[in-house]
Amino acid sequence: MGFFNLSKKGVALALSAQLVLSTQAVTLAQAEMLSTEAAINSYATLDSRAALFDALERDDVQAEMVAMGVDPDEAAARLSALTDAEVASILTQIEEDNAGADIIGTLFTVFVILLVTDILCLTNVFPFTRCAR
User: Fold this and answer.
1) Which of 24, 50, 81, 113 has its CA 20 to 30 A from that of 10?
2) What's the pLDDT score for residue 51?
3) Residue 26: pLDDT above 60?
4) 12 band by pLDDT with thresholds 50, 70 and 90
């Protein structure tokens, strides 16, 4: 009977140690409230990164990369390695650098300049204006 009591004590001690260690690992986790802004920013970052991957997957973009000697798989790997701030910076630069994006504003500016010069009698472009003299 002494051997059984000894083995029961050993098993009980081993199970107790395992229970203590497993509960200690669980208590290391900390829960925090997640603000709405933080949740939206995390999804916006994922969406931004997905937009860049979608642009990278286009056939014309890949053809241009191959023509420039860039491996599309290497470009995708480097895009995956970018930080969130770098992704946001790239997207901002893409949005600002669109060629011909503000054609309406440019046409309106030219119209206003020509209208003012007609009113000041410097040009005679529009027949519906009169000189200010």
Assistant:
1) 24
2) 83
3) no
4) confident
Domain match, 62 and 78 both: yes
Token output for 88: 């946001």
Rounded distance between C-alpha atoms, residue 126 and residue 111, angstroms? 10
Tally of structural domains, the chain: 2
The Cα-based distances of 6 to 18, 19, 67 in angstroms read 18, 20, 76
Answer yes or no: do 92 and 76 share one domain: yes
Contact call for residues 43 and 70 (beta carbons, < 8 A): no
Among candidates 111, 114, 115, which has minimal Cα distance to 103?
Answer: 111
* Opening angle at CA 98, ends 94 and 102, nearest 5: 135
- Residue 100 pLDDT exceeds 70: no
* Side-chain-facing half-sphere of 73: CA atoms under 13 Å: 0
Question: How far apart are the C-alpha atoms of 91 and 105, rounded to whole Å?
Answer: 22
